[in-house]
Every structure is written in C-alpha cells, then in structure tokens.
Amino acid sequence: MSPAPTQARRVSASVVDALVALLCGLAAGVAAGVEVVDGVAQLRLGSPAVWGTALVTAFGLSFLNHVLLTYAVRASLGKLLTGLRVVRASDGRRPGFFRLIGRWLFGFYWMIVFVPLHVATDSSVEQQDAVSLRTIRR
Length: 138
Description:
two-stranded antiparallel sheet; 4 strands
C-alpha cells in the first residue's frame, strides 16, 4: 500500500473540500435571497429560505463530494488536487458506499468535537482515519 500522506496534504485536501461546499452553499443561498421589486434586485439575507438553501446546498455538495465522487474515483475533489485517495484499510481496495457514508458522518463529528479541543488545548493530535478506511498517497 502507498505511504501515509503528510499532515499538510490531508489538511489541504480538507480545506479545499470545505471551501467548495461552503462557497457553493453561500452562493446558492444568496441566489435564493434575491428578490426583484419594481425592477430593482434586493438581497434578503434575513429570509429563512436563504439560510435553508445555503445549508441544504452545502450538505448536499459535501455528500456528493465525499461519498458519491469518492465512491466513483476513490477521492474527493480536495484529495484529487492534493494527490490522495481513499482505500479500505484491510486490503487497499475500493471503499464501499456505506463505509463512505460513515466516514462522511464521522468527519462532522470530528469537526464539532475534536477540532475545538485541538484549538483550545493547542494539541498536536492528527486526524485519524475512520470506519476501516484509510487515506493514502496516489
């Protein structure tokens, strides 16, 4: 199996994936909040439709990227750009669909629980692979 990736590659891939989901979510939210009144476009950021659309789009794109794209090509967009791929830890083969869903959900848990602890305690703990899947260099 290929060697483990550096922490810089893993973080870079995560940042790319997060930015794609967040920026597309925000763009969709802004598009949903534009209202034309008397020929003048107004942006209504306080509308629940704006934030609902942004949230659904961001989560949907995240699922598409981390589960469906990874299922198809063994890597999310960020991993493709940084030369990484996801494989089964046991044999290095293609990851299964339900394990990818578990990995995607674990990523949210990691962000909500461990990233704040990381920052608060200035620890050097590195992100771990989850659900018997491993990230390796291509």
